UniProtKB/TrEMBL annotation:
It is an enzyme of class 6 (ligase). One of its GO terms (molecular function) is ATP binding. Catalyzes the addition of an amino acid to the nucleotide precursor UDP-N-acetylmuramoyl-L-alanyl-D-glutamate (UMAG) in the biosynthesis of bacterial cell-wall peptidoglycan. Its main location: cytoplasm. Keywords: ATP-binding, Cell cycle, Cell division, Cell shape, Cell wall biogenesis/degradation, Cytoplasm, Ligase, Magnesium, Nucleotide-binding, Peptidoglycan synthesis. Residues 116-311 form the Mur ligase central domain. This is UDP-N-acetylmuramyl-tripeptide synthetase. The lineage of its organism: Bacteria, Bacillati, Bacillota, Bacilli, Lactobacillales. Residues 333-459 form the Mur ligase C-terminal domain.
Length: 484
């Protein structure tokens, strides 16, 4: 519950309050009656006469307010309806701070590890949960792109990488109620851009890497904006872990040092390094040292493991817990492997931008000397720059035989997306619009242990986004299993 008085105090303190416009257009700076809200909502379809309703968003329409019984709506715009409006400069900022108070500031009672980066957030989040579970006996909640768990064991599919602030705070409160002591969460650049984590700070923040991605009409206008948004995590973390090998590291380092944030850097330009690396085993030196192993192939996953080891150590995990947590961790849709009846290996991985595709192809190529078939699509209406990047990766790996297919083409024509990729590749590539059939065709092309099929892009996703709707899809693993 939260009173109107407290709502206004929060807004004024944040310099976000304009005024209340009463139903008869009279303006107020304070409200004469005592009102208590028992629910917060940003969806008009989930409101009642005790709800504080946040009218926000690109697609918000005045008619959503028609017939509502809410005592107030909070908004940047006076929609001139017969419901009093609490007017603010920034509705998403208001929503986050009010939600924090409404849900009893759960963020202060949980130890929170927040991860950002273009690639590796989900993998690292699962690594971190596995380590923290070793330390706290399974009391780690997780908010990741793939899945969410608020009781440490029951998983549901996530909608966004970082939830809307109202949902986030409610989830934190639920996690606390369910006895969780720690929360591992991914913080996307969009979360900062759209103020989903406004006013929150984290016990440990991790910046894994950055490469051009998420630049487009509803995401970031430029790479600079993307990088700036990601760097917001620095000033909101009490301890920071950063990859010394990433693009822009000097700026990250300068910012961490200028803000005097306790930190650990990892990678070649630092004291925390991977000093020996084979397929699944590696040795670390520095703050966390010794021999470790993970179940996922690829040097980049060892980097994710090192980042996570440093972050969880800062939260109190010891080397033994780090060791066993990393050894046990599995990540849905990341580097899952299957073996066809012919002996050929199938690699199913969520790689869906140029950098991660490059890494994935390199790893698989280094383990297979025979035929290599790649199944790949690219998203419609977002991440348009990936198409050129995918073509470049395919160009630089001439051994790849490519079957282009559909991957969340949304309102675009999947064939046109494929044609755009194919037009930048100098050898012929195949196209099969039905993803399951593309997988079937690829499996038919390989014939022995030296051969491999790489199924990139969707990981564990069990849907295809078509014309704004998530149509059911078997999932890459289940589709592949049908044709092994
Ligand atoms: C640009 C952006 O961040 N958009 C997100 C944002 O949208 P929005 O606030 O503009 O709201 P909207 O979807 O236009 O809808 C308008 C409002 O009307 C309300 N409504 C609607 C119908 C109705 O009858 N009544 C009503 O009140 C809705 O509840 C909503 O509040 O808030 C919505 C939830 O409230 C999100 O679904 C939506 O994510 C869009 C779909 C999205 O794709 N976001 C991507 C870019 C994103 O955020 N990705 C990052 C990951 C990036 C990475 O991988 O690194 C993420 O954190 O997930
Ligand atoms: N540190 C890394 N550097 C480069 N590529 C990586 C790294 N970690 C993982 N990848 C690749 O990127 C893909 C996505 O990994 P993951 O889901 O862990 O990252 P993410 O940051 O959560 O991604 P997204 O924001 O796209 O959901 C993996 O399937 C793997 O191919």
């Amino acid at each position: 519950m939260i009173s109107i008085e407290r709502v206004l105090e929060i807004l004024i303190q944040d310099d976000n309050f304009r005024e209340i416009v009463g139903a008869d257009d009279q303006l107020f700076y304070s409200w004469p009656e005592a009102i208590h809200f028992e629910q917060l909502s940003y969806d008009s379809r989930k409101t009642d006469d005790k709800t504080l309703f946040f009218a926000k968003g690109l697609n918000f329409k005045k008619e959503f307010l028609t017939g509502l019984s809410v005592p107030f709506y909070l908004s940047e715009v006076d929609y001139a309806v017969d419901i009093p409006a609490i007017l603010v400069n920034d509705v998403k900022q208001a929503m986050s701070l009010i939600a924090q108070e409404f849900y009893g500031r759960p963020q202060d009672k949980l130890k929170i590890l927040a991860l950002t980066g273009t690639k590796g957030k989900t993998t690292s989040a699962y690594f971190a949960k596995s380590i923290l579970d070793e330390m706290n006996g399974g009391k780690t909640a997780l908010l990741s792109t793939a899945q969410t768990t608020l009781d440490g064991k029951t998983y549901v599919k996530s909608e966004l990488t970082t939830p809307e602030s109202l949902d986030l705070l409610e989830m934190m409160a639920t996690a606390l109620k369910k006895g969780m002591t720690h929360l591992v969460m991914e913080v996307s650049s969009q979360a900062y851009k759209t103020k989903r984590v406004y006013g929150l700070s984290f016990d440990v923040g991790v910046f894994l890497n950055i490469s051009p991605d998420h630049i487009g009409p509803i995401e970031h206008p430029t790479f600079e904006d993307y990088f700036y948004c990601k760097r917001q995590l620095i000033k909101h973390s009490h301890y920071f872990v950063a990859n010394s090998e990433m693009q822009g590291f000097e700026v990250v380092k300068q910012e961490i040092e200028a803000r005097q944030i306790p930190h650990a850097f990892y990678g070649e330009k630092s004291d925390n390094q991977i000093i020996n690396s084979s397929a699944l085993d590696f040795k670390l030196s520095g703050l966390v040292s010794g021999d470790f192993s993970i179940r996922l192939l690829g040097r980049f996953n060892q980097e994710n493991a090192l980042a996570t080891a440093l972050a969880t150590k800062a939260l109190g995990a010891n080397d033994e817990q780090i060791h066993s947590g990393l050894a046990k961790a599995l990540v849905p849709g990341r580097m899952e492997t299957l073996t066809a009846s012919s002996g050929a290996k199938l690699y199913i991985d969520y790689a869906h931008n140029g950098v991660s595709l490059e890494n994935l192809v390199e790893v698989v190529e280094s383990h297979h000397s025979g035929r290599l078939v790649l199944i790949l699509g690219s998203t419609g209406n977002k991440g348009e720059s990936r198409r050129k990047d995918f073509a470049q990766v395919i160009e630089s790996h001439p051994r790849l035989e490519v079957v282009l297919t559909q991957d969340d083409s949304n309102y675009e024509d999947p064939k046109a997306i494929a044609d755009e990729i194919a037009s930048q590749i100098s050898r012929p590539v195949a196209y099969e619009g039905n993803r399951e059939l593309a997988i079937r065709d690829a499996i038919a092309l390989v014939s022995g242990a030296d051969d491999a099929v790489i199924i990139a892009g969707k990981g564990e996703d069990k849907f295809q986004l078509v014309n704004g709707v998530r149509e059911p899809y078997l999932g890459d693993v289940a589709a592949a299993e049908k044709y092994l």
